[in-house]
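Worked example (supplementary).
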Amino acid sequence: MMFLAIRELKHSKLRYLLIGLIMVLVALLVFIISGLANGLSSDNASSIQNMKADYFVMEHDSKNKLNRSIISMEKLDEIRAISDVKAAEGLGQMMITLNKIGSSEKTDVTIFATDASGILAPKVIEGKSYDNKKQGEVIADRSLKEVGYKLGDSLKDDLSGKVFTIVGFTEKQSYSHTPAVYMNVKGWQEINPGLKNQGKDSISTIAVQMDSKSEENVRESLPEGVTLISKEESLQSIPGFKEEQGTLTMMIAFLFVIAAFVLAVFFYVITLQKTNQFGVLKALGANTGYLAKSIVGQVMLLAVTCIAISVALTYGVTLIMPEGMPFELSADLVIKYSVLLLAVSVLGSLLSLYRVAKIDAIEAIGRVS
Amino acid sequence: MMGDKLLFENVSKVYGEGDNKVIALDDICLNVRAGEFVAIVGPSGSGKSTFLSIAGALLSPSKGRLLLNGEDITTLSPKELTRVRLEKIGFVFQSSNLVPYLSVRDQLLLLSELIGKRDKTTVKKADELLSQLGLGHRAGHLPEALSGGERQRVAIARSLMNDPEIILADEPTASLDSKRGRDVVEMLAHEVKSRNKAAIMVTHDERMLDLCDRVVNITDGKVFG
Ligand SMILES: Nc1ncnc2c1ncn2[C@@H]1O[C@H](COP(=O)(O)OP(=O)(O)OP(=O)(O)O)[C@@H](O)[C@H]1O
Ligand SMILES: [Mg+2]
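After joint prediction of all chains, the assembly is encoded as:
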């Protein structure tokens, strides 16, 4: 089956080298953009993505936005009482700017407030967790450490005048491209201007662990004034998340279309050029199936080689990427896109197969070439 | 009859319908025996290519039967006809039509590859054929490095590779000067005799006819001779 395919590749090296180069570049771009999309998505939403929750209970009029949702703490017990809910925990959220005391440095962060021993408490990688009773203790995402913050540093919220001390660090916690800072619910309630006049014991949302199968049941048992959204919906409502991911996904989709078209046109033109040759081969006794396998074999060989080269190049590129560049590429994703690229390449050769099927062996007789 | 390799029984071929109808072959009866080298001559448009296409299982006749080595091939499916061409018919085309990226040896091995048994024996067979046709030293060359005469000799070697019942040649000397053309036809005649094959050659070149056992004249789709 590869008798003709390999010999032709060897003979027309330049031609196939050029199309191979285009394939390598397209595949490289697919891998780099998807790595970037993935990296940006974590940078934007890792707090929510890594949270041990499946659904969120939001205030009815919040438009799924965490910073607009306010739920009374009493509701937490009502939610926990619903039979299909495995576990639930309150979460407070707000975005603020913190001043490092003793310097002019300011940092935008997202505050998350939850029970330090509850299901949403982040994993501490350095230092200790904050105290549920004591005021002013926080744990911060590691990215703050990377920009120079240390354990014991004090941070001030200008609006409320409250001061917080970093007692621990966690990792992979960011929201809307800002590092997450965790504290107890009391502390969050004190600095949240939205709660000042209410004086009630409130939180932003209630994170719920439950099966997606029981979604309908839980929804019907919800108390007044709240709705249930999935984790995915909650991600989509993070400022900028949808737009960012949408743009990158579209670019990747276009790259697949481009790969398919470039290969389709290339192999079609080559097949047209070889019409006489295929006619002769058919007259000699080659059936369409054999010729088709030969073309698909050629495309697969080319595609596999090019994809392998661009995977290697992609890992090479990650080595020279600047520190802190949001780039994340899992083996899973590389395999998924490699298979997809291969499939798209084979799809691109279908046009040529159609052409080959239509060539009539009789053209070999009585023709002057 | 036992010695009949190819038998045309009242074969007609009509192209088109109604006013556009062209009778390319009209009730042809012809047989070619083993070891026989037949030349087909005739004016342009007389039906030579049509005749050869039918003989080569590339075209089915409108009427009549065609027997190849005693087997009626007019009833076969296109797929079976492809197999018949591969196993029982050797082709030598007008301009050799070698595959440009295959070495001379691979041109022959392609036929074994297509038939599904390419191994050491077929490599040996290819090399033997090439040396018999004086091409032993050319086995590793690409067609572009060969002269026109050498290319036609490769085409003859290729046509013999799968041990066909019959060899069909379509103006094999058209792209050669008369000296080289004669060499090629001599070689073809020699191979047909020594291997006891049958061969049909369409030609315009009257100077080759003395090398053939029989000359068949086609005019307006009818056979004379
Ligand atoms: N596919 C076709 N459709 C319609 N008519 C055809 C077709 N092929 C051939 N013919 C006609 O059939 C007749 C015989 O054609 P054929 O090609 O067999 O002649 P030929 O002897 O090979 O001619 P030449 O010496 O010019 O090659 C001609 O009148 C030709 O116009
Ligand atoms: Mg002709």
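Two points are worth noting when inspecting this output. The longest strand of chain A covers residues 87-100. The mean pLDDT of chain A is 91.
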